[in-house]
């Protein structure tokens, strides 16, 4: 049997799960950052650190769905399958040339980016035909350059939403309500999660259209904040639904956030959204 040298051996692999009370995995948005997140999850799985709660935004929401929507033994396989599929050349022409040197790498990266711009990403998104300018005002198709129907099919193939809704793992994804500009988090402790909730978290304009759920339209959660921990609903949802506030600090947070009047919370969220909008405009 091949014996790995100390430099090759994976020192993070452990025979049993460490004695943590709860393990949470929080993943941001950021496009290609998602492939790094998949590799991080593989290392966590090898270390027997399987999360009890996953929360994500944008591409992080998709990775979170792939994790929560599969059993532990299938998660790495599904993550790898997803990322290998969507990073394939859009026109089916394999990459034969491995660039060497900064100039060559830059030129090849530009060519690959142009391919994605013109041809989309397999199993993820495709160019909208006809262009959005030819759709009447008020249609969702008139608001984006790409069609995300391939991603809907991919999620249906790779993610078991019945497993997510069974609640073995807590699952939370964030989006932005287009009408109000406020954060909305979809959580399997409160909502019945469907592919639309994951799509909503990654509906980044103007590339992708807003996702409509129960009469409301949602855009990518990263438009307001790219980091799930900034959602104080993580505290509210946990103490209301499944976990009790044990410490004095937790009870103070519960009194401040969980029992706060909804109008006050909504006002604060609206102020944050307006501040973010002004900051993005440079005013």
Molecular structure report:
This protein is α/β, with parallel strands linked by helices. Helices cover 41% and strands 12% of the residues. It has helices at residues 33-46, 59-68, 75-86, 102-119, 149-158, 161-166, 195-201, 233-241, 248-258, 262-281, and strands at residues 24-27, 53-57, 126-127, 146-147, 170-177, 183-187, 211-213, 216-220. The strands form two sheets. Strands 1, 2, 5, 6, 7 and 8 form a six-stranded mixed beta sheet that branches. A two-stranded antiparallel sheet has the order 3-4.
Radius of gyration from the alpha-carbon trace, in angstroms = 21 Å
* Average pLDDT, all residues: 79
Total beta strand runs = 8
Proportion of residues in helical segments: 40-55%
State the separation between the terminal residues, measured CA to CA. 65 Å
Derived from helix and strand composition plus strand pairing, the structural class reads alpha/beta
Order of helices and strands: EHEHHHEEHHEEHEEHHH
Q: What does the largest sheet look like?
A: 6 strands, mixed
Helix segment tally? 10
Q: Would you identify the regions where 5 or more consecutive residues have pLDDT less than 50?
A: 1-7, 235-283
In percent, how much strand structure appears in the residues?
A: 5-15%
Write down the overall geometry. Answer: globular
